[in-house]
Amino acid sequence: MSAMHVHVVTIFPELFASPLAVGIVKRARDGGLLRISLVDLREYTSDRHRSTGDYPYGGGHGMVMKPEPIVAALDAIAAGAPHARRVLLSPRGSVLDHALVAALAREKDLVLICGRYEGVDERVRTFVDDEISIGDYVLSGGEIAALVLIDAVTRLIPGARGNVASALSESFTSGTLEYPQYTRPATFRGLEVPPVLLSGDHTAIERWRESEAQRITRRVRPDLLREPAESTSGTLAETPAGPAAHRSTAAQPPRARARNR
Ligand code: ADE
User: How far apart are CA 59 and CA 260, in angstroms?
Assistant: First the structure.
């Protein structure tokens, strides 16, 4: 199987070094399952100051990311990866969830565009397939969101984790949060491990784990137990399952328009 290739467009490529050099992501890269290219947006600027931001038309505070360097970087990436799926990280996007991570994990090439400042020039949205947020809060840029996405996607690349069974039983695949886990010692500061886990009765252990997972989910995230149509994840829950289900989550019309220009 060929490696998944993630191209990250950013003004802070140095921010990515250590998170991508540990754990499962490092193993996937070392094992040839994942390739990461950090694309320094400043390489695609054309002025003396290598500016990536400018003042907003109409006034207002802060700076807006200029469209030309971003689209020049996208064009350069497209020369080698014409079918790459382009994702803009922004607090305005669809909120990332397991289904969207799974859809992205099936792509061969992903481009992650990290916004900074007060946002990107609106016209950049014409050139992307998806706009994704990692949650309802504002980060100082899309870089950490891109790292979250890379981490979550890498875990779903076949072979990235030794154990496929653990991928299947994991939270958000099963529809519940995870059941409680314990390791030695059996008593820690007076706190006991539930006796059923020491019983050796695998049927009873399985039943206990399922009921604990249900109980915890009901208490902490009751929304996960509701029918998908009632879910809060917006249009994603209403689209049919399958590879195309998460195409074009961007607020603007899909890139087909820009492509045909
Ligand atoms: N950039 C700033 N805030 C963000 C968020 N919540 N998700 C993705 N990208 C962002």
Answer: 32
Distance 137 CA to ligand 1 centre (A): 7
Q: Is the peptide bond before 185 cis (omega within 30 degrees of 0)?
A: yes
Model pTM above 0.85 = yes
d(CA 18, ligand 1 centre) in Å: 20
- Mean pLDDT (the chain) is 89
**For ligand 1, is residue 120 a contact (CB within 6 Å)?**
no
pLDDT tens-digit map of 66-83? 999 999 999 999 999 999
**Are residues 38 and 9 in contact, defined by beta-carbon separation less than 8 angstroms?**
no
Ligand 1 atom with least separation from CA of 135 = 6
Token pair 């829950």: residue: 237
| 3-state secondary structure (DSSP) of residue 81 | coil
Residue 151 neighbours by CB under 8 Å, 6+ apart: 19, 24, 25
Q: What is residue 162's predicted lDDT score, i.e. its pLDDT?
A: 82
Residue from 15, 137, 138 whose mutation best tests the ligand 1 pocket (most atoms within 8 A of CB): 138
Q: Is the CB of 139 under 6 A from ligand 1?
A: yes
Rounded to whole angstroms, what are the CA distances from 19 to 89, 112, 161, 257?
Answer: 18, 16, 17, 36
Could you tell me which of 37, 50, 49, 48 has the C-alpha nearest to residue 9? 37
Using alpha carbons only, how large is the chain's radius of gyration in Å?
21
Q: Which atom of ligand 1 is nearest to the CA of 138?
A: 3
